[in-house]
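Chapter summary example: a protein plus S-adenosyl-L-homocysteine.
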Amino acid sequence: MATEKKDIRALSKEELRNFFVQIGEQPFRGNQVYEWLWNKGVHTFDAMTNISMEIRTALEAAFTINHIAVDTLQKSEDGTIKNAVRLHDGLVVESVLIPVKNRTTACVSSQVGCSLDCTFCATARLKRMRNLNPDEIYDQVMAIHRESLLYHNRPLSNIVFMGMGEPLMNYKNVLESIEKITSDEGLGMSPKRITLSTSGVPKMIKKLADDEVKFKLAVSLHSAIQQTREQIMPFAKSFTLTDLRESLEYWYAKTKSRVTYEYVVWEGVNDAFHDMEALVKFCQYVPCKVNLIEYNPIDGGTFKQASEQVIHQYIEQLEVSRIPVTVRRSRGKDIDAACGQLANKH
Ligand code: SAH
């Protein structure tokens, strides 16, 4: 019986080198193949032109090369591009190219669906099907890098893990993908240009600090009042604000890296003065900034964005307490590519 072939992209460089030693070849062949797979991103062994036919045949017999395919590409009138990305097993995730002035940001997915249950997010309605592998995350980034060169004539400059899924629930694969993205054999991107956004999983935030990661951390806070937060993000019953606070203090003590709080203001949910006070208080715990995100309505949703006046009150309250605050306007709303709208609708 034929044994099932292994995905060669699941191998580390060291494992690839060992494979060549095992078949009686020079280990440096492993480095060459690794470069073809990651830096050049080829999809067939035949494309590896500096590798002999004999070795290519041996590779073909032992491995497959799993890769993604961009199924559909939708362009927004504001220049945002949404990719529907088909994985090797037929499942689909979405990733987004966001042009901002002279930069291009990639927003990538870390899971198919999501295991969390934020009531305002379209992705939460898809149950979590599986975690993405490091190569599947990496490929989304490379696809957007190529689109940026093609449509905007410049390389990708930033990456945010704000697509589908909770990155800290797929910790190992997300970190491995970032390692590949930042390595010279990958995109060679500085980790400072990468932001991981989490709903707030305290244990894993501490693990990030222990692992001394160099990328930036954003936390989807949305309310600094435990009871309110539980209503809109029910998983927060298990991951409380007290635990979150403690994990962020730990993060800051170890990394000295400022945290960004993502925050949407909804009418009747968190638009009162005591909501603002609670946020300002929460912001005292560790150095941070607040990113007020415009709400993107989702199908059948009951939430409504608070008025401009309330948003201004928030900005004022934060500014008098000297907490940096920015407002993030939605991009790509017309193609359902904005925050919280990724739901494989097509
Ligand atoms: N699970 C991670 C990353 C994905 S969500 C996290 O929660 O951080 C990326 C951001 O979009 C989060 O801040 C999330 O709270 C926000 N978001 C979700 N639904 C939204 C919506 N409908 N409108 C605006 N922002 C939304």
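Key point: The chain is about 35% helix and 20% strand.
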